[in-house]
């Protein structure tokens, strides 16, 4: 029998002539395994293995031990590839960098309050309340003199209402919208003086309808974004409506204006006192009813003045709350915060005055 090996037979390597294993080329317990540059070469050969497509099975070294697994992101000489993190248990993709921490002190007051879980509402305070009381006193005193005397403080109220509403909605400068709302208020005043108190609903509602259509036409001609046009249209309509409805002081009976304007002024002053919210609201309503009783006795309304004062006080507190929305600026406090309580009380003064026979 021939001592030649069969064709295709590969003699087992001589264990006495093996080259010693290079230390450090692969350590299964190491956190970052390193491969020796000649790790893929046969001990008796100097030619590297041909590159083959990995099919899920680890290639063999010829000694019964598989080659070390390919580590993504790792170079043969131990250089890390950026973007790939490695560990002893395997490989993983590095997590994206964390977002930088937000400096809370640089945020606006309303956003900081929301992050801290606090209410973003700041009330106008005592100084705007004092101005509201002065303007309410002027309305009450001028109503006792006559309609033409009442027009002077009423025009001031309407101008401040128009400017304050646009600024309250974050739209500044908005000269066209402010001028449009103020012009509608002046038109309603002139219509009331011309038609008389008996035709007050037609004069006020007619002017309001015309100004809504006018604001709609002006916004349709605008070249702004559709969302901005809609937002501007709503602000213009609301500002014009509040300014025109403030003419209800001119449409109401003089005694009703005296009682209602004074009650609204007293309610806002009481609301500005440093008390808890619920307590200050109760105190403000009681003060408005008390002012209504006091002035009702002097004007001949008697006990019905308490109802009128209470209604005007409720509307004034609603206007006061609207002007406190979402950390408004100081300008908002001294415009909308001053005018909205009296403007919101005008419809109650007119309707309750007629219902109570003033």
TrEMBL record:
UniProt keyword Transferase present: no
Sequence segments annotated as region (Disordered): 1-100
Bias type Low complexity, positions: 40-53
Start-end of Polar residues biased regions: 54-63
Membrane spanning residue stretches: 178-196, 202-218, 230-250, 278-297, 303-319, 331-352
Keyword annotations of the record: Membrane, Transmembrane, Transmembrane helix
Protein name: Peptidase C83 domain-containing protein
Organism in which the protein naturally occurs: Streptomyces caeni
Organismal lineage: Bacteria, Bacillati, Actinomycetota, Actinomycetes, Kitasatosporales
């Amino acid at each position: 029998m021939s001592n030649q090996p069969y064709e295709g037979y590969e003699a087992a390597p001589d264990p006495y002539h093996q080259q010693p294993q290079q230390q450090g080329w692969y350590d299964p317990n190491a956190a970052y395994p390193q491969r020796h540059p000649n790790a893929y070469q046969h001990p008796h050969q100097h030619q590297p293995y041909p590159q083959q497509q990995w099919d899920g099975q680890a290639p063999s070294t010829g000694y019964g031990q598989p080659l070390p697994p390919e580590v993504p992101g790792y170079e043969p000489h131990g250089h890390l590839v950026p973007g790939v993190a490695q560990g002893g248990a395997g490989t993983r993709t590095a997590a994206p960098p964390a977002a930088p921490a937000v400096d809370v002190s640089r945020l606006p007051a309303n956003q900081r309050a929301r992050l801290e879980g606090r209410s973003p509402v700041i009330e106008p305070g005592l100084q705007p309340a004092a101005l509201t009381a002065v303007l309410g006193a002027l309305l009450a005193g001028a109503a006792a003199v006559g309609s033409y005397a009442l027009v002077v403080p009423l025009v001031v109220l309407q101008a401040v209402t128009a400017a304050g509403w646009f600024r309250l909605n974050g739209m500044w400068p908005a000269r066209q919208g402010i001028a449009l709302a103020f012009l509608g208020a002046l038109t309603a005043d002139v219509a009331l003086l011309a038609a008389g108190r008996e035709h007050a609903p037609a004069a006020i509602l007619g002017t309001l309808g015309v100004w809504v259509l006018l604001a709609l036409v002006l916004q349709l001609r605008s070249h702004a974004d559709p969302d901005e046009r809609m937002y501007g249209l709503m602000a213009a309509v609301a500002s014009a409506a509040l300014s025109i409805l403030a003419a209800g002081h001119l449409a109401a009976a003089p005694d009703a204006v005296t009682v209602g304007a004074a009650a609204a002024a007293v309610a806002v002053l009481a609301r500005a006192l440093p008390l808890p919210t619920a307590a200050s609201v109760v105190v403000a309503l009681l003060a408005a009813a008390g002012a209504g009783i006091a002035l009702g006795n002097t004007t001949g309304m008697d006990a019905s003045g308490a109802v009128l004062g209470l209604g005007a006080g409720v509307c004034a507190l609603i206007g006061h709350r609207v002007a406190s929305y979402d950390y408004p600026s100081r300008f908002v406090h001294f415009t909308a915060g001053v005018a909205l309580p009296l403007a919101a009380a005008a419809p109650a003064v007119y309707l309750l005055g007629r219902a109570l026979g003033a």
